Description:
By secondary structure, the chain is mainly alpha-helical. 63% of the residues lie in helices and 3% in strands.
Amino acid sequence: MADFESTPEFQALVVAAAGKPERSMGSSVIPAEPPQWGEVRTLANKLVSANANQLALHIFLIQAETNVKGFTGFRDALQNTLTLLTDQWDDMYPEPDLDDPEDMYYARVNLFNDLSMQPQFLDAIHRLPLVSVRGIGEFSARDIDISAGTVSGSEEDKARCQEGLIRGAFAESDKDALQSTLDALDALPGLCKLVETSFAEKTGQADVLSLEPLIKRIESCRTRCHEYADEHLQSAAANAADNDTESTTAEATAGSPATTTDSPAATSTLGSRAMVLASFDAILLYYQQHEPSSPVRVLTYCARDFVDKPFFEVLQALAPAYRDDLPMLLAQLQKQPLASLLSDRYARFLGGEAQPTLQAPTVALPEAAEVAPDGSAADAALAASPDAPAGPGELSAAPVIQSRQEVLDTLHDIEAFFNNAEPASPIPLIIADIRKLVGKRFVELVTEFSRLLPAGPSEAGE
């Protein structure tokens, strides 16, 4: 091992990976130079071809591939290193220290410990692009944190990292590239755990290696990426499914006599607020009956409550803690309205307020009725119903929802209604957050809400 580390090739690799610190020359200050990761990658790959069992080379490759190719490069390099640990442990360098039987593999452990705790590497991961779009820019988890106010940045950073620009980049991104990044982020924490497990099994020491700092950094980037990407990837998948259906239909009808139809695509099947209330109630009833522990039920109830509220009541309901201070209220809503809404609902829960229990509908919309653009047929049916919407405690006539996918479809329908009929409504904003929660597991929900809500005094002071 010592002989290998003293070779000119390995020393050139070390120099390229170190970069150059800021230095003075006379009265001039020469800026620091970052590591030459492209050169590191080339040198390390060349050396690995003849020295595949040198763990130090793989550690350099993990850093180089991460900096050059992003999260996909990180995943692939870590997977290759895990294969080395699994298949070539006995022939790997650094060799075990037989003079220290209690900790003979410390040199190998230290290589991974140094990687996991290296500030430069953790910062590089934080700055890796999650999305990149020509004409808009590229944005990292750090950029999103700056936008959210959880990480400080320069005035230039703050101007560049506006939430609208970031969301626009995710909306316009190449969905295949975005999915590849997300897949890599989803895989990386598990790979890190497998590295820990491999060390534990090979050394016989359960806690010999912990990659917790590295895993924590990856998880924070993963959470940020899911927060912004999921909506667009789900939308792309839905559009692809629609296109497949249209293609199949076109093929099936090819050669058939031409028919004339007058059915322009509607942005929403809902024609009135009464129908919106009925749709909200259908979602509420689904969660009441099938998933009573889901927070989607609570937030859907909140969104329903905004349907007929005037503007200032909506503002106060979204951020009740700031109701007497309009500038602070508006500032809070610009950051994250769902956070205040969630805190308020929890405070009400602690105060003993219970969510109304809905009764199953006794009157449904006539299946044969056509829904006119103005919703007249549906309005007539609702008016004739003894269960016409009169408040959140009373269930409106509505179709029965039987799956999470139908929940998502109904939320999209409601969102489309307000985007077209009442763009000033905050309901689409709330629905966008609700959609992210559908299907999440408990641990994922806790992580999401921890991100949304402000830190406590002790944590904020750290």
